[in-house]
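Consider a protein example.
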Amino acid sequence: MGAVEPLGVGLAAAALPERPDCAADVGGTFVRATTSEGNGVGILIIGTGTGGVVLGPQDDGDICQWLPYAKELATTYRVALFDWKEPREELAQLSVTALRRAGARKVVLGGASYGGAIAMSQAYRVRPAQVGVLSFGGELTLPGLDGRPGIRWWRGPLVQIGSNQDSFFTAKHARELRALHPGPETILMPGQRARRRPARQPAPGPGARDRHTVLGHPPALTTRGGQRRAPGSAQGLGQLGRGPQFG
């Protein structure tokens, strides 16, 4: 597993990632980390508070892709964005570690497409455990990545937001995800009612919160021309965070 380094300690000068131009004026902290293969990773952390959110980009994305939504979330949460480096599976842990060092105590691991696939498949490995997973059209399998074994091990809350226009995560994949994931989940496909299910465990005792309300109602997903789009305001994650485990 890689490590989060303070300002590049232990990294060769040539490997140091730099803050991208798109984030030059957003403030926050730009953290350098290294993967187990020695690749330098840039992680941008913005926002305040004890609630944290990791947003992983699509396969060809980067920090800049998520930055507009991250700035909205940063009014309430600490948000971590990263650029892809190999091995990609390690970036979930590296980002969560950086968020916790910055002051976040409860973290939601999220991402879009490949970033969502990493979040769903690697959530069970992250320590300390995060409070939930938020995936925007994350695939169950990709070339070089079979996320299904990891999803079977994640027993915490999971929200998957897809699109009927997305051929990479269809209603068929939604049914497969429900069969794989042993914990509580909400799956929302525009044009269909959100399907929500509590964890596969005995009913909670008197006074306990229903486990499938931990993540609350998912934010809406708008699509244009078949393109995935993240929610347009921090209200979506605010609703996602209702319940005793986040905020």
User: Anything to note?
Assistant: The CA atoms of residues 68 and 232 lie 9 Å apart.
